[in-house]
Design brief:
By secondary structure, the protein is of the alpha/beta class. The protein is built from 14 helices and seven strands. Helix 7 crosses helix 8 and helix 12 crosses helix 14.
Length: 372
């Protein structure tokens, strides 16, 4: 029997948005998947309002699929959610689909709409409007400062190894604060200052460095001061992060092996609306610690899912390593599984899965207590 669509039936619209830095491209489908049209709007509050009105002109909007809800589409997602519309997160089309269908902004927008309409894309985006978003943004600055400090410290120690004698002999046995203090106080020998030009608009430069030892001292002093400045930045950011993380996740922080840095990363992975993660199994998939089959022939085994948030996966690894070193119960568990002929990778897989279950329970309990 052929089903004929009623041309006079009300249209229920599904939207799809291909997001960019300056312009968002939106496409609309009706309830039968027919294309209603597409348009583009600037990434401004006025553009978000016009995009919502454009979609609403076709009829009631059921759901909108948005690519990149955590990057270019973050502002649009907040605006649409504030307007009472349901937004789902859409992944980029895979390579096979793009090879078959081609690549353009309208094609990607229609693909996002179809993914949302079919239910293939049903992930709830992060709200990014609460305490966890504050933690995430502060952690961005802290992470870059930590990386820069580690790089500068590595460079400083490498310079000491190749420094001229007796500078190398003077510094090679120092470490930590003593090394930074000593290097920060180094002074470089310089030649006579150049004659200033009567037309110069800036302070005359000092004299040139006289030898490799003077150049090495100059480099070491610069790196030492940079490390000290970055250490102060990290300490200041930790002062801002500590009350936020402590108030948001007291149960998470109470777990063995969880500190401020690990807790902050796990909170940033979950977001301000942890209810969007429906179960601890979904959280395990999000963190890349859900076991998936890896059997072949007579081999029957599982391995860890290599997808998910790798930063969250690393946070769980840090908890596991901390417990393997200091927690008697975890040490006993490792020894028992080793006697069962389990490999170290398999033991770590099991530990990270158990830890993910504990973390999810703690985060959801903290969210219920704080009202997030």
């Amino acid at each position: 029997m052929t089903i004929v669509a009623d041309e006079h039936a009300p249209v229920h619209v599904t939207g799809g948005v291909d997001t960019h830095a300056d312009v968002h491209v939106v496409a609309a489908l009706d309830q039968l998947g027919r294309e209603l049209g597409w348009s583009s709007f600037p990434t401004t509050p006025a553009g978000y309002t016009n995009l919502e009105r454009w979609l609403g002109a076709f009829g009631p909007v059921g759901v909108i699929g948005v690519e990149g809800t955590g990057v270019y589409g973050a502002g649009l997602t907040r605006a649409l959610s504030a307007g009472g519309l349901r937004v789902v997160e859409v992944d980029r089309p895979d390579r096979k689909a793009r090879h078959r269908q081609g690549k353009s902004d309208p094609i990607d927008a229609y693909a996002a709409a179809r993914a949302a309409q079919s239910g293939r894309a049903d992930g709830t985006p992060k709200t990014r409007d609460g305490t966890v978003e504050m933690i995430r943004t502060l952690r961005v600055a802290r992470t870059s400062a930590v990386k820069a400090r580690a790089t500068a410290l590595t460079q400083l120690k490498a310079l000491i190894k190749t420094a001229p004698e007796p500078l190398r002999s003077d510094l090679r046995h120092l470490d930590g604060a003593a090394l930074l203090h000593r290097c920060g106080g180094l002074r470089s020998a310089r030649g006579p200052a150049p004659t200033p030009s009567p037309f110069a608009k800036r302070t005359p430069r000092p004299g040139a460095l006289v030898d490799p030892t003077a150049a090495c001292k100059r480099a070491l002093a610069t790196l030492a001061r940079r490390i000290s400045v970055l250490a102060d930045e990290i300490a200041d950011l930790d002062d801002d992060l500590e009350p936020l993380v402590t108030d948001t996740a007291p149960r998470l922080l109470a777990m063995f092996g969880v500190g401020l840095d690990v807790a902050g990363q796990l909170l940033a992975t979950v977001g301000d609306n942890p209810e969007r993660i429906g179960s601890e199994s979904a959280f395990a998939h999000l963190c890349g610690v859900a076991p998936i089959p890896a059997s072949s022939g007579k081999t029957n085994r599982h391995r860890l899912n290599r997808g998910g948030d790798r930063h969250a996966n690393h946070a769980l690894w840090r908890i596991a390593m901390n417990r393997l070193r200091y927690d008697p119960a975890t040490i006993a568990y490792r020894d028992r599984r080793a006697k069962e002929q389990k490999s170290n990778k398999e033991i770590m897989r099991c530990l990270k899965r158990y830890i993910a279950r504990e973390v999810y329970s703690a985060i959801t309990a903290d969210a219920g207590q704080t009202g997030r």
